[in-house]
Amino acid sequence: MKNIIVTDWSTCSTGDPLTVWPDGCRDLIVCIEPMQHPKIFLTGLDTTAYCVKVPTNTFFSGIRLAPGSVAVWEKGEPTSCRNLLELHQHRLFSTSLFQKISKYPEQASDLLVEAVEEWFKPINSITKEFFDAINHSDGQIPLLTRSSRTLRRNIRSATGASPQFWLGLRWVRKSAYDIVFSDTPLVDIALSAGYSDQAHLTREMRRWLGLTPAALRREAEKYKHMVTLPNAFSTLSVMG
To answer: What distance, in Å, lies between the first and last C-alpha atoms of the chain?
Structure first.
């Protein structure tokens, strides 16, 4: 299952809202609120930024899943990849897993890895080929060894989103990284990413990330971790 898992992570809430940006990944998450039983979620495929508000000292442990990670019960339903699923209420949820996490929350990450091995299918070669190509594209959907129509159908079926979705997310995240870690003029970043002009970049960044390029640059220190977290296009991804 090494081509499924991008990374594992954990955090404990301070009570402040947690900002989430689309990263192209879905996460299998254990959430333990103070004095509550654990809950397990499979996140959907995010299309815009949002905030999560949870009580102070809420513990999260998660496994970030590479694009094309589809649960066994989602076969033939790619649109379900966009939905948040509460697995502790799902008919396929393992009671024994829930009991183990409740008893040994410090082992949540290892137990989630076991769940990934049980619940998720390997990523297919078409998806891996597409993401290898899109990471080296010049702002266009890469030409692979398939017709455009077949590519669109296969990628949407495998990932729950179209090639255009992935290209848009790839370039807005790359642009955000360049804004945070360089002094390159915003208009040059926009053009290098394939946007028609700076206004086009601004519209796309506001749609995906909820803020403008200028605001991102002003608060670069605040957002550095957001643009370097392992994501669908990260070199830290272990796809392949």
So the answer is: 10
